Amino acid sequence: MNDRIEKRIELAAPVSRVWRALTDHREFGEWFRVAIEAPFAPGEESRGHITYPGYEHIQWRAVVRDMAPERLFSFSWHPYAIEPGVDYSGEPPTLVEFRLEPHGDGTLLTVTESGFDRIPAHRRDEAFRMNDGGWAEQVQNIKRHVE
């Protein structure tokens, strides 16, 4: 198994538009399907709940790590933490990075999630597999959102 998931997608939207879709908590929630309670702020925990059908019972929790305007937005979280009543806080989180680069008239977005090698062995493979599929879907969601 690999330690990192990476998805790249070309978006027919300027970097400023993609940046807003990533870092405005309401816009992020629209395409990511999560209702986030407050704006993103580096060093702060972001909370809310998933709105994706079948996953509405799941709380969203991520710590914003970096917001380098129009270049990098990142957060850490506990991947595929979906079991009710399970406390994942003792596990090391993974790091999710959204990197933006101008690409012609649009934007090249690279989404990377790393740190799966530190996830407990009993759930590592499933967390990787589910998030790999999840990011494949999410890059299409943001594409539809910004284009």
From TrEMBL:
Family: Belongs to the AHA1 family.
Gene3D superfamilies to which the protein is assigned, alphabetical: 3.30.530.20
Protein name (database record): SRPBCC family protein
Lineage: Bacteria, Pseudomonadati, Pseudomonadota, Gammaproteobacteria, Lysobacterales
Record InterPro entries: ASHA1/2-like_C, START-like_dom_sf
Organism of derivation: Luteimonas soli
A Pfam family assignment: AHSA1
Ranges where the Activator of Hsp90 ATPase homologue 1/2-like C-terminal domain occurs: 13-147
CDD domains the UniProt entry points to: SRPBCC_CalC_Aha1-like_5
